[in-house]
Amino acid sequence: MALSGWFVLLVAVGVLPIVALGDPVWLGAWLVLVLLIGAGDLMLAGSPRAVSLARDLPSRVRLGETVSSTLTLTNTGHRRVHGVVRDAWQPSAGAFPTRATVSLPAGERRVITTMLTPFRRGERRASAVTIRSFGPLRLVARQATIALPGAISVLPAFTSRRHLPSRLARLRELDGATSVMIRGQGTEFDSLREYVRGDDVRSIDWRATARRTDPLAGTGPRLVVRTWRPERDRRVVVIIDSGRTSAARISDEPRIDTAFESTLLLGALATRAGDRVDLAVFDRRVRARVQGATGAELLSRMVDAMAPIDPELIETDWSGVPSLVQSITSHRALVVLMTSIESPGASRDLLAVLPQLTRKHLVVVASVVDPDTIASSAARGTRDEVYLAAAAERSMLDQGRVAAAIRQLGAEVVTAGPAELPPAVADQYLALKAAGRL
Amino acid sequence: MTATIVTPTVRTVSRRALFWVIAAVFAVLVALAALAIPGATRGAGTPYSPTDAGPTGSKALAQVLSRHGIDVALPGTLAAASSALNAPDSTLVLVDPNDYLASKQLASLAAKATRVVLIDPTYNELSTLAPGVTVAGDVADRALTSGCDLAAARHAGTIGGAGVGYSVTDRADAVTCFDSGSSTYSVVRVGPENHTVTMIGAGAALTNGHITEHGNAALAVGLLGETAHLVWYLPTIADTAASGNPSLGQLSPPWVPSVTVLAILVAIVAAIWRGRRMGPLVVENMPVVVRASETMEGRARLYQRGAARTHALDSLRIGTIGRLAVTCGLPRLATTDDVAAAVAAVTGRDLGGIRALLLDTEPATDRDLVALSDRLLELERATVRSVRPQQGE
Q1: Interface confidence (ipTM) of the complex
Q2: Are B97 and B232 members of one domain?
């Protein structure tokens, strides 16, 4: 049962007869009258329990986008249900509107649309639908909560996909497949084709030219050039650290989300480049794993795997990573470790296992750096700021020492701010590919 | 499809609450039964009350008197007592241990009675109605003989003396009875024959519990049954003299209490209206929020609190030296001396000053630290300007 503001007003109106007639008896009489009216209104209210419900919603949405969830209400009772309906979503599902007014005659059906704009990644749930059905006088309502579980999977935003077209163009240049007339920069022989003006003369294959004469042209032999392309079918293994340090927020974005963005951009790029991309999210156990997918399926499986993962507040067990990589591929691969390098103490475990990985694989360690740190190190107006700058310099020195140690162990280091890390990782990949180091 | 309805039905709620409802009803019934048993809730009772059948009451005496043809009036208010005393030849029994009646009220009431009997009177009553009689002290519970020619006392012979005794000073018309030694009397009568005031200190003699002992009954009946009318009045708090101004309740209109009650009810109803939730909350696990720069800020505060100026400055210097080395195009392994020399060469400044800034000067105060940090920044900028003049400012 629930009351409305009209009921409160009705009780308050009792002040008129009491003041006008001046007898305390009227207080009791008025209360009895109000109770009778309220009881009658309650009796005549349609039963919210007789409403059958069905929710229709998409299974997934990208973070930051809006989808609509529809709720179909069917009144199986005998009286009209007039009132308010609440579709109960978690706050971070960003449901709007949260209340809907319905007037549902007996035997009829209405649809309520709720717009969902989730602001947190993961699985966002709805638990129940609450219906408050007012009587004909709108004074008193019957209320019932009907369990109706629902869930929508909120995928990572992949905002870094805006960097994809430019990186794909670079990739095509590497391929030699662009209209830009430069020689493909890869190391694998691709094909022979006719010389066009602008081709590098060093790529002319004289032997093939000699073999080929064009009888129709009659102007003599045409020059044939070799084209090159980058290696294909290489392995890229991305390991995302979901441990304690990945929970830290940099520019209001957890490190793990930046790692997801970088992984998605790298995955999209590498699968277009013809490489096989495998993903594992790891702290002390494998939280998610994507293997053997290519093309569009790779991205969709990646975002599905990433969606529900939040960092665990435990130290990452780096000693398990070499065997994890070994379980994914036994061939040489580009192993990208999405983690954070902060201080020599915290990165000791990572440094301890890196030789095992670099012996066989090409390792890239990608880490987010805090733009605040650099900003703080430059701002030195007051005494507090000078101390803060000193601490910032100290943490940058620590990062620099860890990065130097990682490079000494034969791995590459990519560090950038949250917005710049995904394109930086993609560029590193392209650079390695161009250099034929994959 | 059968939907699960989370909200319990009225039937479920009532079934769940059945036990507690029964328990509450039972508790109320027990309480009512306890109230209904006569005397069970009676406390000490009202002493000398003509309607109190307890051991300290005096119902027995009042009943005996009325059975013997005496018109016993039991007024509830001062006005009623006063009008009851309008009958000629009446006795007033006054029991006012709490001094509810003011002297003026006492005097006007007592003036209308032929006989006034004060049971265990207070100082105020004594000083108003029987000046010259004072309380002399407690009297132990023992039999006292009358020792006077008061008819009632003579008939009684002996009474139980538990109570207080009085002494008479400077009063010629006092009749003193039941001497308990050292001029302490348990019953004293003063005043002219047509308007006597009798003080009974041995009040226990009049109570239901003790009236049958000794000659208590004879004394009580004798003193209270002298006239045909008896007004037995126990003043209440309502008789206290009202203060000068009328109360707020008397000034305000009659509907004010009802409207107040209605306002409270409206507030309760409004609370129910606003307080009823639209169904339960949906639980959500919140993520951990850790700002990455917290460790950096914490370290800065540690430097500051520990006044680790040299340490802080060293961090700044190492950062500056690293950037200067890059600016000057020195290899990564260049020593500080190399960097200082390169910077001196590039900027044309004094090598000693640059060395002092980059290595030797120790900050003694925070002011020095800030100044050195500013000079480091300035040196960096100057070096950049010298190496790449086109980028200048």
Answers
A1: 0.73
A2: yes
Per-residue confidence at A130, pLDDT binned at 50, 70, 90? very high
Contact B315 A390 (CB under 8 A): yes
Q: Which residue of A has its CA nearest to B255?
A: A22
Q: Are residues B95 and B235 in the same domain?
A: yes
Chain segment A333-373, per-residue pLDDT in tens: 999 999 999 888 888 999 999 999 999 999 999 999 988 88
Amino acid identity, residue A10? L
Return the pLDDT at A181: 40
Query: For A190-228, what is each residue's pLDDT tens digit?
Result: 777 888 887 778 778 888 887 776 656 556 667 888 776
Q: Is B282 within 8 Å of A389 when comparing Cβ atoms?
A: no
B227 & B136 share domain:
yes
CB-facing half-sphere around the CA of B267: CA atoms within 13 A? 6
* Single residue among B187, B205, B239 that ends a domain in this structure: B239
Do B311 and B225 share a domain, yes or no? no
Residues of A in contact with B300 (CB under 8 A): 384, 387-388, 390-392
Report CA-CA distances (Å) from A174 to A169, A262, B19: 9, 21, 82
Domains in chain A, CATH or no CATH each: 1-155 (2.60.40.10), 191-229 (no CATH), 233-434 (3.40.50.410)
Residue B138 domain-assigned (yes or no): yes
Quick count: other Cβ atoms within 10 Å of Cβ B137? 12
Show the beta-strand stretches assigned E in A291-399: 333-338, 362-368
What's the mean pLDDT in B230-254? 76
Q: What is the CATH number of the domain that holds B66?
A: 3.40.50
Asked if A145's CB is within 8 angstroms of B279's CB, the reply is yes
Q: What is the mean pLDDT of residues B285-306?
A: 87
The residue ranking higher by pLDDT, A192 or B268, is B268
Share of chain A above pLDDT 70, in %: 94
B97 and B233 both lie in a single domain: yes
Partner residues linked to B185 by β-bridges: B166, B179
Residue range A325-330: mean pLDDT, rounded: 92
Burial class (CB in 10 A: 0-12, 13-18, 19+), A260: buried
Smallest CA–CA separation between B26 and chain A, in Å?
27
Shared domain for B112 and B211, answered yes or no, is yes
Is the confidence at residue B1, as pLDDT, over 50?
no
How many independent structural domains does chain B possess?
A: 2
Q: Same structural domain for residues B75 and B197?
A: yes
Examine residue B365 and state whether it is found in any structural domain, yes or no: yes
Domain end: B239, B262, B284, which one?
A: B239
Q: Is A123 exposed, middle or buried (0-12, 13-18, 19+ CB in 10 A)?
A: middle
Nearest-angstrom CA–CA distance, A415 and A429: 14
Q: Quick one: B226 and B311 in the same domain? A: no
Residue A39 has pLDDT above 90, yes or no: yes
- Sheet-wide strand order for A333-338: A286-290, A276-282, A235-241, A333-338, A362-368, A412-416
Q: What is the mean pLDDT of residues A239-268?
A: 91
Name beta bridge partners: A401.
Answer: none
Report yes or no on B252 lying in a domain.
no
pLDDT over 60 at B296, yes or no: yes
Note whether residue B146 is domain-resident: yes
Mean pLDDT of B45-54: 79
CA–CA dist B185, A7 (Å, integer): 73
Which segments of A245-313 does DSSP mark as H helices, in order?
A: 255-272, 295-306
State the residue range of the domain holding B156: 59-239
* B1 contacts on A by Cβ (under 8 Å): 52
Closest chain A CA to residue B256: A19
CA–CA separation, B82 vs B75, rounded Å? 9
Answer whether B255 sits within 8 Å of A313, measured CB to CB. no
Q: What's the rounded mean pLDDT across residues A295-324?
A: 91
Residue A85, pLDDT above cutoff 80: yes
Contacts of B4 in chain A (CB under 8 A): 146-147
